[in-house]
Amino acid sequence: MHSFGYRANALLTFSITVLALICAMASFSDNFNSPSPSSHVQVLNINWFQKSTQGNDEVSMTFNISANLQSLFTWNTKQVFVFLAAEYETPKNFLNQVQSDHCPCHS
Ligand SMILES: *[C@@H]1O[C@H](CO)[C@@H](O)[C@H](O)[C@H]1NC(C)=O
């Protein structure tokens, strides 16, 4: 007949199958979600600029950043990385990119 081992095995298999199905449904449902984050960045002040002979110039700036990231947070979101990058063009280089060193990203 059905021993304890058989019943435990059946129960475990069923539970894991249901769990996998729910995970797949949660993952699939994210396809219908189209997040629309918005942000506004304003340079308030350029505090100092330091030219370096090694090539890594440093600048300290004060920004006023407002962002609405609410639409990014769904049941499928584990973590959101936010950073600030400035892109500009010079006669020598088509694309220059500067990324922020520290990003105070509090929710
Ligand atoms: C920063 O921007 C917000 C709105 O975008 C504004 O209400 C606020 O006064 C600004 N703060 C400073 C210090 O400029």
UniProtKB/TrEMBL annotation:
Keyword Cell inner membrane: no
Segment forming the signal sequence: 1-20
Keywords in alphabetical order: Endoplasmic reticulum, Membrane, Signal, Signal-anchor, Transmembrane, Transmembrane helix
Topology within the bilayer: Single-pass type II membrane protein
Any single GO BP term: signal peptide processing
Predominant place of localization: endoplasmic reticulum
Pfam families for this protein: SPC22 (PF04573)
UniProt xrefs under InterPro entries: SPC3 (IPR007653)
A GO-annotated cellular component: signal peptidase complex
UniProt entry tagged with the keyword Transmembrane helix: yes
Subcellular location: Endoplasmic reticulum membrane
Top-rank taxon, per record: Eukaryota
Family statement: Belongs to the SPCS3 family.
Main function: Essential component of the signal peptidase complex (SPC) which catalyzes the cleavage of N-terminal signal sequences from nascent proteins as they are translocated into the lumen of the endoplasmic reticulum. Essential for the SPC catalytic activity, possibly by stabilizing and positioning the active center of the complex close to the lumenal surface.
Protein name according to UniProt: Signal peptidase complex subunit 3
